[in-house]
Sequence to fold (93 residues):
Amino acid sequence: MRIAPEIRLERDHFVNVSLLALFTEPMYLPTTPASLLWVIPICLSVSLVYKAIKIEEFRPGIFVREVAFLFGTILVFLLVIAVVLLVIAQSVR
Fold:
């Protein structure tokens, strides 16, 4: 089954316009407490990838320890930043 060139052009134009809209219109992201749990897999994947690239000698025990330490460090600093921003927001009101 062949697609007529003008139909293909319209379809490609629609895809390009919708991709462009992702960068020009803000995306709705809910800020419920449950949605904030997405920070955990993001921090874990950042820790895994960073340590997989930076570790000089790969041994499973050392790797797991380093990833766990970096993961905990990232989460602690995110919590500290959240508390500081909360205090600032409360003092402005």
